[in-house]
Design a protein that fits this description.
- This protein is an alpha/beta fold and 449 residues long.
- It is built from 23 helices and 5 strands.
- The protein has helices at residues 2-9, 13-28, 36-47, 62-72, 76-100, 106-112, 115-119, 127-142, 146-156, 164-177, 180-185, 188-197, 207-210, 227-230, 232-236, 238-253, 262-281, 298-315, 320-336, 347-359, 373-378, 408-411, 417-422; strands at residues 367-369, 388-390, 401-405, 426-434, 437-444.
- A 5-stranded mixed sheet has the order 2-1-3-5-4.
């Protein structure tokens, strides 16, 4: 029993076992999570080496583009490998935090086997990098290394816009603590990127704020204020959700002894979940209610799981080994019963890939597309705006092709299928359907006026 207790509480084996399962799941996957966003981020990173302004593309996120661009040269798999590395880094940081706080290391096993967290690292999304940097911030805050904590916090906004929340929380804490040097460090990442990127924004050093692509009022429909709370079991999985709630209550009840832990371990998840709930509930900030945005606080919840397990061990020492074993089995069952990992190709990817093979069988001057996966499968540079162009063409010539799909066509392109069929300048030449997803190719039969 003592050997099992040591294995689950202090050994590095749970980390190594989790990494192994995590990497295997990512390796056997042949699709990506995140839909069109994954493809769009990949394209920006890949072609930033040819079009330098893409390094400072606001939607693409500068720090993500800079760090992932070498991997993107290897293809979409290269970017997913980069994100898997971010996941491994997050897990290592969590393990180091657990060891420092003398919490059971088995908790990190739950991080790498959380189905939603794991699957979203098989993507071209920005959330994995954001997660690893945020976990780094928590690591340095718990070590009271305020300079490195400030560097991490200041970098977050260069990966995802909501990073401003963590800058604000850490900034307020540093101000109260009179850590003025570290307070200035918070500004270094944004100021550096703003000055360098101003070259591509006509000398506007404030471009990072003036060119922000998100409006206050969202163009998506609003939803329930409790949307993320209601889906918490899906996002985090029941093992993490149950034990992190216990850990949260434990720390809250012991706040006098754990005052320095309150901001990173209690405030971060509460403020972050509240922020996204308000955005989606009131239809603000281009929030679509995507559940994936919450994975970034999963490592913090894992630390709270460690707090819960330690507290249970203190109160019920004779049952401790059974609790740790039960927690491990709970995590494994949750992982094994999920269909999120491996990530298989979606209907959209399968249909678009088939359509690309059909288009390449004929000679086409220009292809206009709506789904960002098209140039990925076709292997064309969409930023030259010659052979493949995103969106509806302003000028089209006889022989040009429009690749319409049933998601991006009507939503992003504001073009319904019936509108395409009714357009006298185009005729339907190919149609691919995979389940309920449709991709249709229309060819121009006369020049635009």
């Amino acid at each position: 029993m003592q050997r099992i207790l040591h294995l689950l509480q202090k050994s590095i084996i749970p980390l190594l076992a989790g990494v192994l399962v995590f990497v295997i799941g990512a390796t056997v996957s042949n699709g990506v999570m995140g839909g069109g966003d994954s493809f769009a981020h990949y394209l920006i990173a890949k072609y930033s080496w040819l079009h330098y302004h893409l390094f400072f593309d606001h939607w693409g996120k500068p720090l993500f583009t800079i760090l992932s661009s070498p991997f993107a040269q290897l293809g979409l798999k290269g970017v997913t490998f980069f994100n898997v590395c971010c996941g491994v880094l997050s897990s290592v940081l969590v393990y180091l935090i657990l060891r420092k706080e003398q919490l059971p290391s088995i908790a990190v096993f739950a991080l790498l086997l959380a189905p939603y967290f794991t699957s979203l690292h098989v993507s071209g999304l920005t959330e994995p990098l954001f997660t690893s940097i945020l976990t780094g911030q928590v690591y340095f805050m718990l070590r009271k290394n305020w300079i490195f904590a400030a560097l991490c916090a200041g970098s977050l906004v260069l990966v995802r816009t909501e990073g401003i929340l963590f800058i604000g929380m850490l900034g307020a804490q540093l101000l109260v603590m009179k850590q003025f040097k570290s307070l200035l460090i918070l500004l270094v990442p944004v100021v550096t990127i703003s000055l360098v990127g101003a070259v591509f924004y006509e000398g506007n050093v404030f471009w990072f704020y003036t060119e922000m692509p998100y409006s206050v009022q969202s163009f998506y429909d609003s939803g329930s204020l409790f949307h993320f709370i209601e889906n918490a079991d899906i996002i985090f999985g029941l093992p993490i959700l149950v034990f992190s709630l216990i850990g949260f209550l434990v720390l809250l009840s012991q706040w006098k002894e754990n005052i320095y832990k309150l901001i990173p371990l209690l405030s971060f998840p509460v403020v972050y979940i509240t922020f996204h709930s308000v955005l989606f509930g009131f239809g603000l900030g281009a929030s679509a209610g995507l559940k994936r945005v919450l994975i970034v606080i999963t490592p913090v919840l894992i630390i709270l799981c460690g707090v819960a397990l330690k507290e249970i061990g203190t109160r019920f020492p004779k049952a401790y080994v059974y609790v740790l074993t039960g927690f491990s089995l709970f995590v494994i069952i949750n992982y094994a019963s999920s269909n999120r990992i491996p990530v298989w190709q979606s209907n959209q990817e399968l249909a678009l890939e088939e359509m690309v093979s059909k288009i390449h069988e004929s000679e086409v001057q220009k292809v206009c597309y709506f789904h960002p996966a098209y140039p990925v499968f076709a292997g064309c540079d969409p930023f030259t705006k010659t052979h493949c162009v995103e969106g509806w063409p302003s000028i089209y010539r006889k022989g040009d092709v429009v690749v319409w799909d049933s998601h991006f066509g009507p939503n992003e392109g504001r073009t319904a299928y019936n509108d395409m069929m009714a357009n006298q300048d185009f005729e339907l030449i190919e149609k691919v359907e995979v389940d309920y997803y449709t991709v249709a190719t229309f060819q121009c039969i006369k020049d635009s006026k």
